[in-house]
């Protein structure tokens, strides 16, 4: 029984389409290789799948560029002109975008404003006001964050101070420190740690012992 003829049309199912492409790609590459060996032909085969994957076959004795050059010579068609024109058009668009960005930067720092219309100046003013608001909000957020951090440090220092003073009182010792308490707590700079030393109670000194004070310092 003969094999049925397959209708040539696009395969809608993605999986089936990819499987068919893989099988037929292998077959056409095999035919190109056979043509190169049997007929001593220069063959350059390039294929792209629907997903953009490249497959190619080039005769061992040639290169793709050589085949293209021969094709251009025989047909009189320059294959690179269209590509070159597209590259030139892309370069032109990039230059225009770059010039536009440079002008926007100049306008934002107050330069080259003479050629702007009233509506353009008003739009620029609104853009700058919006940018300024974003910067100001960020600045206030950082100030609030730093202030809260300093407050936590001060609370921790105060709690540490209270805890250690209680320990000294339990041990019958009298702690003291040099300087203002607020300065030691770091209200001005938000930094520092207490370094506690105890002051022995003079009444608890043994006969003949010298009174040596100890200090509570911020280190």
TrEMBL record:
Keywords for the protein's UniProt record, in alphabetical order: DNA-binding, Nucleus, Transcription, Transcription regulation
Localization, UniProt: Nucleus
Primary localisation category: nucleus
Keyword DNA-binding: yes
One GO CC annotation: nucleus
GO BP, sorted A to Z: positive regulation of transcription by RNA polymerase II
Gene3D superfamilies according to UniProt: Transcription factor, MADS-box
Gene Ontology molecular-function annotations: DNA-binding transcription factor activity; protein dimerization activity; RNA polymerase II transcription regulatory region sequence-specific DNA binding
Residue span(s) of domain MADS-box: 1-61
Residue ranges annotated for the K-box domain, each copy included: 84-174
Keyword check for Metal-binding: no
Pfam families: K-box, SRF-TF
Entry protein name: MADS transcription factor AP3-3
Organism of origin: Delphinium anthriscifolium
């Amino acid at each position: 029984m003969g094999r049925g003829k397959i209708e040539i049309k696009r395969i809608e199912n993605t999986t089936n389409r990819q499987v068919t492409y893989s099988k037929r790609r292998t077959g056409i590459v095999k035919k190109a290789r056979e043509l190169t060996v049997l007929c001593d032909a220069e063959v350059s085969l390039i294929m792209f799948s629907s997903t953009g994957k490249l497959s190619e076959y080039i005769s061992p004795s040639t290169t793709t560029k050589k085949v293209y050059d021969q094709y251009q010579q025989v047909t009189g068609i320059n294959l690179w002109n269209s590509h070159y024109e597209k590259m030139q058009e892309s370069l032109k668009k990039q230059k225009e975008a770059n010039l536009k960005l440079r002008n926007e930067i100049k306008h934002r720092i107050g330069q080259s404003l003479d050629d702007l219309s009233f509506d353009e100046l008003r739009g620029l003013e609104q853009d700058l006001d919006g940018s300024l608001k974003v910067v100001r909000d960020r600045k206030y957020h950082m100030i609030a964050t730093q202030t809260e951090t300093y407050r936590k440090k001060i609370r921790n220092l105060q709690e540490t101070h209270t805890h250690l003073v209680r320990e000294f009182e339990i041990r019958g010792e009298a702690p003291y420190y040099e300087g203002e308490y607020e300065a030691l707590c770091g209200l001005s700079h938000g930094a520092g740690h207490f370094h506690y030393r105890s002051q022995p109670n003079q009444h608890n000194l043994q006969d003949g012992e010298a009174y040596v004070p100890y200090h509570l310092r911020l280190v």
